[in-house]
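Hello forum,

I keep getting stuck at the same step: I have a sequence, I want structure tokens, and every attempt I make locally crashes halfway through. Rather than fight my setup again tonight, could one of you with a working pipeline run this one for me? It's a single chain of 228 residues.
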Amino acid sequence: MSKKNLTFLLFFASTMLTAQTDTSSFFDAFFKPISYSKPFVSEVHSPMNKAEIGCHRDHSAYKLSERFSFYQLPIVDLHLGFDAPLISFDLGKITNKKPQWEMGISIPVSVHILEDMWEPITAAVIDVDYRFDTPTIKGVRHLNSNGWLKNISFSIITLMHECTHLGDEFALMIKQSGNPLTRVNVSYEFTQVQLTLNDALNQDTNNHSFRITGRYRVSNRGFGMKKT
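Reply #2:
Ran it on my machine without issues. Output:
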């Protein structure tokens, strides 16, 4: 972790200690569930558990011959992960007894898997992505308003590592077919900042949210995601 990130986390921790005046409430803040700044289901790097099915027919990227017809069948797209809360606490109060601010730190971990479940022999794994994060800082500012805008939330990913690997069975199948194959393990790190208007706060109600994301790739090994 860089010195800047460490300094920021120490400052954040000192603020949290100042905010917790009661010893019991201080310890209650550890491992408390965080309902704000959660990723949307559709987000690429979401640690939510979900399964999707899609049909992949573009063989040109892998130089597959047409005899591998089972790759024209649907492909299972699995996302497995969790967002482990480390600490969450409240700051201030507004008139309806809700906290004015909620702040927290969590660590998201996720795995993204593409698998051909309908392949008749081994149900080959096509690709696996691994994602590990340093502590993510989250917060939400509740507004005393009866209008559309009820809160503003944010999240800061200090540093996330992502690496992607072709499945062994998939790579062996291409090699044994006589097609050329160059296997490159792609990995990189990035930081990310998100700002959300009208965060759903994990509530099962009708809600319209707006989210903007800024992401910057830190590492540069010649492969992987470009700076955005």
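Residues 3-19 form the longest helix (17 residues). If your local run keeps crashing, start a new thread with the error log.
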